[in-house]
């Protein structure tokens, strides 16, 4: 039965953004790998209509940053993977910050720079080696411009950086990335910026539709599992994924670093083999997720921490490569109409005024909107069901060696 979150959170039923800002802090990814999106000016009311107070870009599109001046919306701007190498030069880093950040402050409230996107899971050693130096260099540039107190430096990771993701308490990073992640966490710890993870239960389901409970990935009630080691109860896969990342961070000794979710979402359409990619499932996933955000619920391991979730994504993006799902993660069609009904009233917010020039992120797919990211969609996503969970204690207490993420977990139901 479709769940109707409006009955539980009446405040979500209406579009009045004034209500939302008090009760609800939603983040949204504004990817622009498309040739048919509305002009950024027209996107402002759309963002407000869903109660989003935070927007994440994959670049620093001047049109968007200008359009959102004096709106109170907070921004994460992106520095593309293709720019990492040159950021090692302090002059270039400072020039980038001046042009793409300082120029828009304070009218546009840029609060973070995401340096690179899902860099470590590209398995490109040059790119990976440049990541931390680029982050440090951009941070130094902010210090020299006296902006480091208001603008944070971070980077967003694909969940594939985890080698073990089940049970959540056993979460651990890929061994070949541990050294780099340790240094990156040390950086976060020093400058006080968050560690960002992109987490998609969809990919776990898509990889294993017969074994993974749809209710568990869609936050529906009645499903769940207990982590045999911690005894914590998980009623959805998203929290299990996030706590696996918490465990991995903690194992390296950085419990003080705050973990946040830079992307999560569900596609409304996919290829024949992309199980679960339907408008109804997308509505349930994002609707239930928004309810969790409104309820300000943390994960079982960190009940009081704010995950600062950014939903992926605002629009369907027609120029994204890859399977059909990649072009159908949007809450909205390019004409501003909702892809499915989330209970927001967006009537008449956007006319079909599309700007001919694609966003400046267009063409840079390497740093463009995830989840195109790292290819194999099942990479890094745990695949478990409630039924499996009941069987776990005997199996999992023996050893966690079989929990290698790349292994497809295929339990007998
Ligand atoms: C920008 O966002 C930060 C973080 O929420 C907030 O503390 C600050 O007051 C905002 N600045 C402006 C000018 O709105
Ligand atoms: C939605 O908004 C439109 C335009 O503001 C308004 O005319 C309409 O009555 C609203 N519908 C609902 C169900 O609130
Ligand atoms: C589209 O919107 C932009 C920005 O609001 C405006 O400058 C432009 O004139 C509009 N174009 C049309 C055809 O309405
Ligand atoms: C990167 O390397 C890991 C570990 O060797 C592997 O599991 C993953 O599939 C690789 N990813 C890509 C995109 O090549």
TrEMBL record:
Biological process terms in GO annotation: carbohydrate metabolic process
Disordered: region residues: 353-375
Catalytic activity reported: Hydrolysis of (1->3)-beta-D-glucosidic linkages in (1->3)-beta-D-glucans
EC numbers on record: 3.2.1.39
Record keywords, A-Z: Glycosidase, Hydrolase, Signal
Molecular-function GO terms, alphabetical: glucan endo-1,3-beta-D-glucosidase activity
Pfam families: Glyco_hydro_17
Keyword Hydrolase among UniProt keywords: yes
The family this protein is said to belong to: Belongs to the glycosyl hydrolase 17 family.
Protein's UniProt name: glucan endo-1,3-beta-D-glucosidase
Species for this entry: Sesamum indicum (Oriental sesame)
């Amino acid at each position: 039965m479709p769940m109707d979150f409006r009955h539980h959170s009446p405040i979500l039923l209406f579009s009045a953004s004034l209500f939302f800002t008090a009760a609800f802090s939603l983040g949204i990814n504004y990817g622009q790998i498309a040739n048919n999106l509305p002009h950024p000016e027209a996107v402002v009311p759309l963002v407000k209509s869903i109660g989003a107070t935070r927007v994440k870009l994959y670049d620093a599109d001047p049109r968007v940053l200008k359009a959102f001046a004096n709106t109170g919306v907070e921004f994460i701007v992106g520095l593309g993977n293709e720019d990492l190498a040159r950021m090692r030069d302090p002059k270039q880093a400072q020039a980038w910050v001046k042009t793409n950040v300082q120029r828009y402050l304070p009218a546009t409230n840029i609060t973070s720079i995401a340096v690179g996107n899902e860099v470590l899971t590209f398995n490109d050693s040059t790119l990976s080696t440049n990541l931390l130096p680029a982050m440090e260099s951009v941070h130094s540039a902010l210090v020299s411009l006296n902006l480091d107190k208001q603008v944070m430096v971070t980077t967003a990771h694909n969940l594939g950086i985890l080698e073990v993701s089940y049970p959540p308490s056993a979460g651990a990073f890929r061994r070949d990335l541990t050294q780099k992640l340790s240094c990156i966490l040390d950086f976060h710890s020093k400058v006080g910026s968050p560690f960002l993870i992109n987490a998609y239960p969809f990919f776990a389901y898509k990889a294993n539709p017969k074994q993974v409970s749809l209710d568990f990935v869609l936050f529906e009630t009645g499903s769940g599992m207990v982590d045999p080691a911690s005894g914590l109860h998980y009623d959805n896969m998203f929290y299990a994924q996030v706590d696996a990342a918490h465990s991995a961070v903690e194992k390296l000794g950085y419990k003080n670093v705050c973990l946040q979710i830079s992307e999560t979402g569900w596609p409304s359409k996919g290829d024949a083999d992309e199980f679960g990619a339907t408008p109804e499932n997308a509505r349930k996933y994002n609707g239930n997720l928004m309810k969790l955000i409104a309820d300000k619920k943390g994960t079982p391991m960190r009940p009081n921490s704010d995950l600062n979730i950014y939903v992926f994504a605002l629009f369907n993006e027609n120029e994204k490569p890859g399977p059909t799902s990649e072009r159908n993660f949007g809450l909205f069609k390019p004409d501003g109409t909702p892809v499915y009904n989330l209970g927001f009233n967006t009537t008449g917010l956007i006319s079909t005024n599309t700007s001919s020039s694609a966003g400046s992120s267009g063409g840079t797919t390497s740093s463009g909107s995830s989840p195109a990211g790292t290819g194999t969609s099942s990479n890094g996503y745990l695949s478990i069901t409630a039924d499996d969970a009941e069987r776990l204690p005997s199996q999992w207490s023996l050893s966690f060696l079989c929990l290698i993420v790349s292994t497809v977990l295929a339990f007998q139901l």
